[in-house]
Amino acid sequence: MRTEIRVNGVDHAVDVDTRTSLLDFLREQLDLKGSKKGCDHGQCGACTVLVNGVRINACLSLAVMHDGDEVTTIEGLASGEALHPLQQAFLTEDAFQCGYCTPGQICSAVGLMAEIAAGQPSEATADLNAKVVLTDAEIRERMSGNLCRCSAYPQILAAVRRAAGAAA
Amino acid sequence: MSTVRDWAAPNPITENRSGLIGKPVDRYEGRLKVTGTAPYAFEVETPSAPLYGHIVSATIARGRIAGIDLSQAASAPGVVLVWSHLNVPVQAQRGAKLNPRSQRGSNPALGSDRVEHYGQSVAFILADTPENARAAEARIRITYEASDADLDFGSFIDSAGPVPGEEDARIGDFEAGYSASAVTVDATWFSPLQNHAQMEPCATTAWWEGDKVVVHTSIQMVKGGQHALAETLGIPSDRVRLLTRYIGGGFGGKGQSYDDLTLAALAARESGRPVRVAYTRRQMFQATVHRPAVQMRVRLGADGTGRLNAMALEAVTHCARNSTFVEHAAEFARNLYAAPHRLTGHRLVRLDIPHAGAMRAPGEAPGMLSLECAMDELADRLGMDPIALRIRNEPEVDPDNAKPFSIRQLVRCMQEGAQQFGWDRRNPTPGAVRDGRWYVGMGMATAIRGNFLLPAKAGLRLTGDGLATLTQGMTDIGTGTYTILAQITGETLGLPLDQVRVELGDSDMPPAPGSGGQFGAATAGSAAFETGMVMRRRLAELATSDPRSPLYGEDPLLMDFANGNIVLGNRSESLATLASRAGPEGVYVEGSISPAADARDWSQHTYGAQFAEVGVDSVTGEVRLRRMFGVFAAGRILNAKLAKSQITGGMIWGVGAALTESNAVDPRYGSFLHQDLGGYLAPVHADIVNLDAVLLDEADDKANPMGIKGVGELGICGSGAAIANAVYNACGVRLRDYPLTPDKVLAALEAKGL
After folding, report:
1. CA separation for the pair B575, A44 (Å, rounded)
2. What is the extent of the structural domain holding A67?
3. pLDDT value at position A167?
4. Does one domain contain both A45 and A114?
5. Any bridge partners for residue B314, and if so which?
6. Are residues A91 and A70 in the same domain?
7. Does the structure's ipTM exceed the value 0.90?
8. Are residues A55 and A104 in the same domain?
């Protein structure tokens, strides 16, 4: 099925198998293998990408559903040699070990920052009438859809904090 | 053969003049990982467009395939081939070894009509796209003849048999010592079946170059995988090149190869195309190894002052009917506390379920969940502080074999941990501290994990551009191997890190045993160090014997290496110049490490103390971690940042073992109850708060020339026990059936009338 999709700033007009997940489309057809397949059914978060700025699990979405959408993957975050502040923070804080969940964690954290900036509350938001602020509890809650079996959670928290501090 | 005395002289690592050893540098391959450009096995570039394999799994526990019809699948869109046991290419019999020196025997896939466990591979589809390969599965018709299967561990525990070739370890007279003790504890713990749940499913990309197969696969042991595939295919191992450069988690579960490797190699040969095969998440649970369940009975007998007189840990565990593996849950207890009368041993139940295997700290991880809680119970019974009880039973020599300790800082770990954690604020009376609806408590436990050095080699090339490239058939499963090898090589040669390259995970490179058993850093690192020393000697000879060098004619033994130069007094020459003069290939050397002949004359372990504070919800029974802290002693630390990541990662595994992680066999089908990450509950970010660790200054001069030890498995040891002890301190409930889930906690609270 004909699908027009913009990925990391590049337009693609392609015929896609209707069964192809957005994740397999990115990995096998566009050769963007940074988005990882950890479970292929929305439980691990390793495939997290940004669609029109919102984070989703690319494995739970069909490529043909994204006609006209703008997708950003881990490969689209750095500007040339300059890492995205979250990528740099993950590196500095050692917020990963095996690295397989890392692209999803970073894309998820980019989405998280946007949610906070847009004032979207979460389960961890104490006061729904106040401005949403980036507390440790917010970060832990909002990053809990991204499993890290190496268990770099303390460092991931520190990395998101570091990047948020740099952005503030 | 060397002795540990040979390691005593100062060397570039122990002198650490450029300060690279211990330095918290960023991960060597970190940039590739944060940009998503590190190619894992399924993702490597292929010489031409790949085909995709899909494995079909058995749905019975035991029996045979009575009939299988592949014809509909074979004619499905895009399908290139379909195999079952009836038409799969010839492979060697399971376990067969053409070469007696192979580290692993044949590992055939689809080898017969017999089904030995639920989830075993029974068919394979190769197609042009992943979608077509998966869709064709629905067109395969399989009928089974099921046989009776032994599936329920619990019903066989009482009839468990001895472990082949193993006897109970008895010192003194346990029964007499125990019955003569003034204060006793006798209780039984249960640690359930657990899964590794690595984030990257097992995967292989394979293609053939003439009569040689190239496989990129996700495996912790390069040689083991290479040999297994060569034996399976019936070809010499030099016709298998196995690469594993980036591995998305192993934890022991990728210590061996699986059917993705075998089938990808066979399908690539048959199709003449590169082939990619990955396990599904469900297959990861059902068709790779797991940590078996363990039942542990602990008996402790002490006098009124807390001095242990008798100690027993008896473990019953399980493994697959035709594949012996023993979770040695009692073994660590032999080396931990003094007691004149001792008994430890293991019993085994054979089940018709997937193979049991090594998972992070096999033995200690479940084992310490029993003994370290029994010690807490004994302290409670004696009215003693748990740390004081442990210090009272601190041995002067290894209680198992009377060997001296190479170094043992266990008491210091407990004391420093207690101070930094604020242990003195713990109320010893259970249930005495409330925070709203939460019972709050603190617990501690010790950690012990063995240290090992295995034989390994490495290669090192210095080129005219001044770069040193270390090559080793070693793996980095997230442990930091790339980084520490760069630090060791840089420090040994006096080179800045930006002039050091590390290449790993290739069977063409000098072999190392791989990642496992917490031996990786010491083993691969020591080989890298020795290789660096070989390079120093070679460069010194080159410089002093060459009239073009300013160091010509000098004694090569006097040469120093610093800032990229070879130096004597105020004369020096850059390593780049030396390498250029040696020729276009530069200078290449190999080196190796072997265990010292007398290494086992010392008792050698890594140690730690774990502290946890938990809240127990009086309404729901939920246990929440409030904070956790550990102090560890594990030899010289090569990279403070990466070592701490390893340790805290292990501690979090202990949180999972204590509170959430559990699997079980469905007695109707032989399948696991949990076959995905929604059911198997590994810790998530929100489960972990305020968790930190400290590594003590230490150098173990009996361990290896660098005095380093492993940190990969130490962190999980005792971690869960500290949490269980904190649960008791919080609410006065002793739960011995892990994990401590709300249903169990709530029932226990209700039984206490709370």
Report:
1. 47
2. 2-76
3. 62
4. no
5. B297, B345
6. no
7. yes
8. no
